[in-house]
Amino acid sequence: MDIQLSKNDKRFIPIIFSLSVIIPLAVLALMLMPENWRIETGIENHIFPLFHAVINGTTAVLLVLGLVFVKNKKIALHRASMVTALLLSSVFLVSYVISKLSHAPIPFGGEGFIRPIYFFVLISHILLSVAVLPLALLSVYRAFTQEYEKHKKLVRFTFPIWLYVAVTGVLVYLFMAPYYV
């Protein structure tokens, strides 16, 4: 898997920026969408969150593997892990949009000390998922254009944020699992 792009910042940076603005705004709009606009998919509501947790967990494993591979100079395996993590994140995003189009958000029913913990995890997950989108896209772009020094500088920020988002995605599911039935 030897993917290489010609460096064309004037073309790709605006695309990355546009996606980084449009996608979070579209997801926000879906969250605020009136109930009567929802579509029927025939998929039970609890299936999507489980699927999303599996994708997030797998993404977290791939990110860690990617780090191990690059530290051991197994660049082809690193690249395969990271591209697969990006593809899974894209599948997650499409599935998440479909789930929000078809099902209203489910409120968290937890009480007591667990409630502020859940909301801290959820809010930090959401905010950092918005931040990781341009970071991940730009990191992959810099790698594919063989701008490895820029890539390395970016991934110092991208990696921990992306890993946090993937892990907290699983945690949000675990917090919410009792309410998906």
Please bin the fraction of helical residues: over 70%
Number of helices: 5
Number of strands: 0
Q: Sheet with the most strands?
A: none
Radius of gyration: 18 Å
What pattern of helices and strands is seen along the backbone?
Answer: HHHHH
Overall pLDDT: 92
- The shape is globular
The secondary-structure class comes to: mainly alpha
Q: Distance N terminus to C terminus?
A: 42 Å
Uncertain segments: none
The number of distinct structural domains comes to 1
Strand content: under 5%
Give a structural overview.
This protein is an all-alpha fold and 181 residues long. The chain has one domain (44-179). 75% of the residues lie in helices and 0% in strands. The protein contains 5 helices and no strands. It has helices spanning 9-31, 47-71, 75-102, 114-144, 148-176. Helix 1 runs antiparallel to helix 4 and helix 4 (114-144) packs antiparallel against helix 5 (148-176). It is globular. The model has no long low-confidence stretch (mean pLDDT 92).
